[in-house]
Structures are given as structure tokens and as C-alpha cells.
Amino acid sequence: MASEYGESFDKYQAGRLEMEKRNYETATVFFEESIRIAPHFKTLELLGECKLNLKRPAEAIVPLAAAVTLGTNEFRAMYLLARALSEVGEKRDALKFLEALLQREPTFKSAHQLRDSLTTSEQL
Fold first, then answer.
1. Smallest Cα–Cα separation from 95: which of 81, 109, 106?
2. Count of domains observed in the chain
3. Is the pLDDT reported for residue 123 higher than 60?
4. Which residues of 32-43 are buried (b: 16+ CB within 10 A; e: fewer)?
5. Residue range 77-101, pLDDT digits in tens
6. Residue of 108, 32, 50 lying closest to 74 (CA atoms)
7. Residue 72: pLDDT band by 50, 70, 90 thresholds?
């Protein structure tokens, strides 16, 4: 069991290195392998972020929702989930997550900016 977690962590670390190089497709492969071995909220969050960076927001929703559910500090995952939802046209759902996030973390600047852009949008 311990070796599985070590292998999962190694894949996670490899994915992070690829993200730093903006190799999001390769990072996605490492994160998906890590999750298959031992799911962790941070790996799910980064997988979702990679999907957003690859302009595949619909594919980002499930890992980000899982990260929000599993996480102990889910603020960033919640913001990324709201972003993914807004990018697929689910603006009302995105606003719900942003409001919940801002109630718990009122200084989250990016969440304020996204909420403001969604509330001024005519497509609600």
C-alpha cells in the first residue's frame, strides 16, 4: 500500500513539473495515472486546471467537483470549478459556487473578478 502512494506521488510530481513547463497534455496523463493509483484532491484540482488550460472546460468539471468534495482547502478548486462552469455556459451554477466561496474566503480576488464579469454579462 505504501508503495502505491509513493508511485501516485511520483506521478503527481511529474505532472506538476510538466505544468510548470506548460505541457498540459503531458501533465494530464501523469495526473490521470496518479488518480488511478490513489486519488487525492490536489491531483484532481490540477487535472481540472490542465483541462481548463487546454480549453476543455467540460472535461474539467468532474475532477474539479471531486476536488471540491475531497479537499480540505477547496477554495482554489471551487474557483476553478466556477470558471469551468462559466466557460460551458452554466453561469448560474458558476455564480452559486462563487458566492459560496466568497462567503468563506471574502478576499479571493479572482473569484470577485469572475463573479463581477458574470453578473454584468447579459447571458445569465
1. 81
2. 1
3. no
4. ebbbebbebbbb
5. 999 999 999 999 999 999 999 999 9
6. 108
7. confident
Kindly state the average pLDDT of the residues 60-69: 97
Rounded Cα distance between 15 and 32, Å, is: 9
pLDDT value for 2: 59
User: How far apart (Å, rounded) are the C-alpha atoms in residues 106 and 13?
Assistant: 31
| pLDDT band with cut points at 50, 70 and 90 for residue 124 | very low
Range of the domain at 109: 2-120
Residues 6+ apart with CB under 8 A from 117: none
How far apart CA 75 and CA 21 sit, in angstroms, is 24
21, 49 Cβ separation under 8 angstroms:
no
How far is Cα 67 from Cα 62, in angstroms, rounded to an integer?
9
Cβ atoms of residues 75 and 104 within 8 Å: yes
